Structure formats: C-alpha cells, structure tokens
Amino acid sequence: MSTTTTDAAALEPEVDPGEVGLDAERLARIDRHLQGYVDDGRLAGWLFALTRHGRLAHVARAGHRDAEAGLPIEDDTVFRIYSMTKPLTSVAAMMLYEEGAFALKDPISRWIPCFEDLQVYRSGSGDQIETEPAVEPIRVWHLLTHTAGLTYGFHRADPVDALYRDHGYDFGQPRGVDLAAACETWASLPLLFQPGSEWVYSVATDVLGHLVEVISGQSLDAFLAERILGPLGMVDTRFGLPDEQRHRLAGLYVPGADGRAARFDEIGPVAHGTPTFLSGGGGLVSTAADYLRFADMLRRGGEADGVRLLSDRTVRYMTQNHLPGGADLERYGRPLFAETTYDGVGFGLGFAVTLDPVANKVLGTPGTYTWGGAASTSFWVDPEEDVTAVFLTQLLPSSTHPLRSALSQLVSQALVG
Fold first, then answer.
1. Could you tell me the pTM of the whole model?
2. Strand, coil or helix: what is 62?
3. CB neighbours of residue 247 within 10 Å
4. Are 277 and 173 in contact (CB under 8 A)?
5. What's the pLDDT tens digit per position in 290-343?
6. Residue 67 and residue 395: Cα distance in Å, rounded?
7. 8-83+236-414, what's its fold?
8. H or E element: which one contains 65?
9. Are 350 and 8 spatial neighbours (Cβ–Cβ below 8 Å)?
10. End-to-end Cα, the chain, rounded Å
11. How many helices (H) and strands (E) does the chain have?
C-alpha cells in the first residue's frame, strides 16, 4: 500500500484511475473546477490528492504557496491544517482509551480538577451574566463530541464567546499560555449549556489534548510524535516549522475587498517554531503526503504497514454518530461558522459523519467521515467506496467558498466502478 510510504517530494499517482474504478475524464472536472479559483484569484494555490482501494489515483495542484514571491505549490509544501489537528488528538485519546486509561463516561475532573463545580450560562451579558450550577460533569465523551458546553471566542454568537475573547481567547490565545493554564481559564468561565445537552464547535479538543498530557505523562507534541507521527512516517507534521524548513510553508490568505485572496500575515507566524500552547484542536502543520498516511490508517481500520494504532472496532466506533438520539448537527448543534448546512450529518468521536446524503443535499455516501480546517483544508474517508481524499489550501475563513461540498460531489461523480 503506497500512501503510507509515498515520498512527499514525489506525490505522483501510482495507478491508472480506471484500474480502481475512477473515470479520468471525470476526474479532470475536479482540476478544472479548482483551477478556476486560482485563475480568478480567489485562491493563491491548492493541492488535492485522492486514493481508492489504498492506491494513489489522482493528484492535482495549482497556483502558489507564496503568490507574492512567485513560489509554486509543490508536493512538499507545508500547510497550517488548523482543525484537521482534532482527528489526530482524538486518535491519541482513543489509544489511551484502548489501554484502559479511562472510560468515556468518566468525568474529566478526575484528571483536570479545575473542571469541578462548573457554572452554566443562563442569561445576561458582560458583567450581568447569570449562571446556574452544572447538573452533569464534563465527561470524556463530551470532549470528543463537542457537547461539553465549551465554546470558541471567535464564534461571536453568545455572551460566553465574548468572555473567552475578554480573556484573550479569540482566534488564538494569550502569549505564553500553555494547555494547563488555558484549561484553568476555560473552567473558570460559564459553560454555554449543560454538558451533553447540545453541540457547539469548541476548545473541547484542546482540553482533550491536555487530558492526553496528564494521563500519559508526556507533552502533547511528544505523545503525538512517539505514538502517531513517528510510527506512520508523518515526517512533516508537527507544531510549527523549524527555521530551515520555513521556506516550504504556504502563505496565509483572506478574501480581499475585490474577492481575490489577500495576504494575511497577522497570525501566520504562529506556525514558526514550536509554540508554548500545543493546540490539540488546531496547532499542527502538515503536508498532503503526511495526512494521506493518517487518513489511510483510518481507512485500514487503525493499521498502516504493519503498525497498528487502533483496533478496527475502535475506528468503527469512533466513526458512528454519537449525538444523542441519532440527531444530526443541524438539529442538535448551534449554527456553525460554515459554508454549508449540516442536515443529515452527525458527529462521532472526533469526526463529522454523513448519515443521510439526501437530507444533506450533497452527493456522497452514508458513513463517510470527515473534518476540515479554518484555512479551507479538508479530508474525508469513505469506507463504502474505499476512498480517501485530502485538500489543502490556505484561505481564512473556511466558510468563504463551498469548496468541501463541491469536492464531495465532484469526487462522487468520478466513481464509476
């Protein structure tokens, strides 16, 4: 199986698409569609890779990693993957779960005591916020499913979000803060809702990363390097690039006033060097070849090239819908900062899971699990069609263009066998 051993410097297809049930002419539609984003300036550059039956069948790339310097997208280009960090942190936690380190229903205050005696938002704003005691502790499964009642400051949707921003947690965190200190702050703020009662995208996976640290006795970067990245040969995935590798890092962009991608260096340097805050929810940089290795491990049920990280039963369990009552995100979750609705999409232990493509109104397959990052990156694994896909670019925010839903429909229409 090649995607676990592919050299990042030569990410080239290893099989004719027709041999694995893909139509080459239909695959070209993907390239033309994405090329249009570069031609009209909406994206500086992108890279897309697709496997079927574990074989790399299609790779396309266009544009620049640094448009201002004229540096092209290359196979070893490094991208900030932001929330595509979350599935790796979730896998790390479930590796400890398989060792019997915790039960999913265990309160996290057993290991992180600051999460005892929590308060929950009830009404008001600013200095006039009223709270009530939490009737349910935050449990491990709440972190894995974003049902803990934690939030993000950048949502800008609720008074609790404003409290996060007041404490320095917007799209980032105060300088010098580590995971332990961040948890102390978050635990001191009201929860957005009673744990387990709703879904909202949140810092829950950062708390999960600290849980991994406390239980394992290792820093999160050390645990990931030793237990996941090293065994999978993910040599370019880490919390920040060393100086000698920085020329490979893609520039960060946002939509300009004219709709064209405009350089945005204000938060880009966070990826320069190892940060103090090891964000299990969004801190990693990676390459297409590396993330394909991770996705292929999941596709293979937790194993890659003789290295087993998880049992196949655990992977299947993680990629089922864990929202209470089988609800989808559109009904159970608060509105997402996203380019699409989430009808017919549930959430497992670290991944969104397609329940009903008809309800979602995007061509796809039930059981597909996926997630993306703030800079418009995404990946998915389709167990039924035996497909993995990775799309990397650097445009904030991910809600700017409907790239993810378009890629799903374009890949699906290219499957012919």
1. 0.95
2. strand
3. 12
4. yes
5. 999 999 999 999 999 899 999 999 999 999 999 999 999 999 988 765 667 789
6. 13
7. Beta-lactamase (3.40.710)
8. strand 55-66
9. no
10. 20
11. 13, 16
